[in-house]
Design brief:
26% helix, Rossmann fold, alpha/beta, single chain, 2 domains, Immunoglobulin-like, 5-stranded antiparallel sheet, 399 residues, globular, 8-stranded mixed sheet
């Protein structure tokens, strides 16, 4: 989203953040799960006769904070299915609410199942997709409109989702006006009353703090340009055929709609200096965390740390664990590293010097082996995630 006053607002806010840095960066609220219970309420977020859609808001039980960071998460389903009650989206909403966030999930307009074939053709599909994007914008505006009701900090609203939901979030953030859209998209915007859409809550900003892009994409990486700034955490399998990891036709090539996933977005984000992190799940298909709880927990914990470090860049969860001994050998390595700990491990992630997660290996027990034969020569960090919580980093080199 284009924020002309972004730099000025940062300058004004800087002193306040410096004064409260010690309290905000103590690894507690917004990082640790300091609440055990979560409350939820459901209402309608659209306020026009065009459509009626529901939103469920999750809040930490017993929380008394007067202004809280907020995350809006949008379900997937290829624009033909899914609801705000999606199991993965609900899991993410609950876990982030336990950290002190206000979270929300929404329903949005879908393509009628009988007309699902329109996804095979962009001319037919885009008007439906833009309706969903219109609803997503209305949901952002709803949360800002009723900020006092939910005790929301309107300057700290994150948007994201899974698959189609992530696509909605990405396009709300990185398509700043109709002038950026292709003629086909511009026509689709016109069909919903213009760029802001026809789902309601006019007069409130759709600007967001950051994005969580979980197996999502952009129709065109050129939507990202020098005027964008939203930090983005992405996770995707590099064998994803539903939403291509790079640029290709969606739905396994059966559709003429081309999209560019997280693999194609990252170099563009890097080029414009936009803070980003990509967790690639090597060899995995679409949404691998749906069938693997260890990968689900990795996505949840990594995205939480990513958001936390936006205000606390020097914070690392590694500092939480100081009494666990870990050995890594051989170092340097050429084909495989072995990691042994005196506590049970859950997974080992290998991160390169640019902060990119290049592999993740699930571990059951106190010993784990990681194949590094495909890595280029250089220095890497092995992040050892412990079953009991927390993580430890070990640096090693590949020769």
């Amino acid at each position: 989203m284009k924020k002309i006053l972004y730099s000025a607002l940062l300058s004004v806010a800087a002193m306040g953040w410096m004064q409260s840095a010690s309290a905000q960066c103590d690894g507690q609220r917004y990082y640790s799960k300091i609440f055990s219970d979560v409350d939820s309420t459901t209402s309608t977020y659209t306020d026009t006769a065009v459509t009626t859609q529901a939103i469920t808001v999750y809040e930490p039980h017993g929380d008394t904070a007067s202004s809280r960071r907020t995350i809006l998460l949008i379900h997937g389903g290829s624009f033909v299915g899914g609801t705000r009650k999606d199991a993965f989206i609900q899991y993410m909403c609950y876990e982030f609410a336990k950290r002190g966030y206000v979270t929300a999930s929404i329903d949005y307009r879908l393509i009628p199942i009988a007309q699902g074939a329109v996804l095979l053709d962009s001319t037919q599909a885009f008007p439906y997709v833009i309706k969903s994007i219109s609803d997503g914008k209305a949901a952002v505006r709803f949360l800002k409109r009723y900020a006092s009701t939910y005790r929301i900090d309107t300057n700290w609203l994150v948007m994201g989702g899974e698959s189609a939901g992530a696509l909605i979030a990405n396009h709300i953030a990185y398509v700043g006006s109709v002038s950026e859209a292709t003629p086909l998209l511009a026509s689709a915007f016109a069909s919903v009353g213009g760029f802001d859409g026809n789902s309601g809550n006019p007069g409130y900003s759709i600007n967001t703090k950051a994005l969580l892009n979980l197996a999502g994409a952009l129709l065109y990486t050129g939507f990202i340009d020098a005027s964008d700034h939203e930090p983005i955490y992405s996770a995707q399998g590099d064998a994803d055929q539903t939403v291509p990891y790079n640029c290709a036709n969606v739905l396994g090539g059966t559709s003429n709609i081309q999209m560019c996933g997280a693999g194609a977005m990252k170099p563009v984000l890097d080029n414009f200096g936009i803070t980003n992190q990509l967790h690639t799940f090597p060899g995995d298909p679409h949404v691998p965390w749906e069938s693997d709880n260890a990968k689900r927990d990795i996505v949840e914990s990594e995205s939480a740390l990513f958001l936390y470090q936006l205000e606390c860049p020097t914070f690392t969860a590694i500092n939480e664990v100081s009494n666990v001994k870990v050995g890594l050998y051989p170092n340097p390595a050429s084909s495989q590293i072995t990691i042994a700990a005196d506590a049970n491990m859950e997974s080992i992630s290998v991160v390169d010097m640019l902060g990119r997660t290049v592999s993740t290996t699930t571990v059951n027990g106190t010993d784990g082996k990681v194949d590094v034969s495909s890595l280029s020569t250089g220095v890497y960090t092995a992040r050892i995630n412990l079953k009991a919580g927390g993580s430890i980093a070990k640096t090693f080199s590949v020769k």
